[in-house]
Design a protein that fits this description.
α6 links the parallel β5 and β6. This protein is an alpha/beta fold and 223 residues long. The structure holds pyridoxal-5'-phosphate (PLP).
Length: 223
């Protein structure tokens, strides 16, 4: 399988302004290296330990996206280098990211994860919870956090019309929140939605960042 060809095929099928995050979870560093040599820079991992190990081994020019559920006690392992944390879903987690970012004397960009799927199991905030979090005022005091937008995962289903409705719902929340809380800032600009099975729908519906794993690297082997 030619992973570079897979990546280029997706890259060429989406507008230039959309960030393509290559989700390399469970895949060896050598595969990441191959894409990095070809010029790709954005990679996503969902386990802190794997991310930290790969970051240590691979070039510092890689922009690492954390796309999993981040536990507060593990923030410190990725705070020195992480480029964007996609799945933030509590003020408690933001406080810890702020603390660790300050220790490392850097800004950490974060996306709030919104629950848009029908499944109970997916993480994320409701629209009301997003508004409550942003309205709390505490965020404004977090000097080392840059809130860059929202992230969501649609229901895992073949019904792409349902998926489309969920992405439309997320896009609406994104626009509402942007107008309400970030109208004077350009920094709240990312909408991370779309995976291998549904990225075309996501791009249609206004995604700025897609997270693609299996379509680039092939199926994952969990063990
Ligand atoms: C694994 C994962 C992806 C990529 O999934 P594919 O279906 O393999 O493209 C995207 N986003 C998140 C949050 C993931 O955990």
């Amino acid at each position: 399988m030619d992973i570079l060809q897979n990546l280029n095929q997706i890259r060429n099928s989406i507008p230039d302004h959309i960030t393509l995050v290559a989700v390399s979870k469970t895949k060896p560093a050598s595969m990441i290296k191959d894409l990095h040599i070809a010029g790709h820079r954005d990679f996503g991992e969902n386990k802190v330990q794997d991310l930290a190990a790969k970051a240590e081994e691979l070039p510092a020019t890689i922009r690492w996206h954390f796309i999993g559920h981040l536990q507060t006690n593990k923030v410190k392992y990725i705070a020195p280098f992480v480029h964007l944390v996609h799945g933030v879903d509590s003020l408690k987690l933001l406080r810890v990211i702020q603390k660790e970012a300050a220790k490392n004397n850097r800004m950490i960009s974060c996306l709030l994860q919104v629950h848009i799927a029908q499944e109970e199991s997916k993480f994320g905030l409701s629209k009301e919870e997003v508004i409550e979090l942003l309205g709390s005022g505490e965020l404004a005091s977090m000097q080392n956090i840059k809130l860059a937008g929202l992230m969501g995962m649609a229901t895992y289903t073949d019904d792409l019309e349902q998926v489309r409705l969920e992405f439309q719902f997320l896009k609406r929340i994104f626009e509402d929140v942007k107008n309400k809380f970030f109208s004077d800032q350009t920094s709240f600009c990312e909408l991370s939605m779309g995976m291998s099975a549904d990225y075309k729908v996501a791009v249609d519906e206004g995604s700025t960042m897609i997270r693609i794993g299996s379509l680039i690297f092939g199926p994952r082997n969990y063990h």
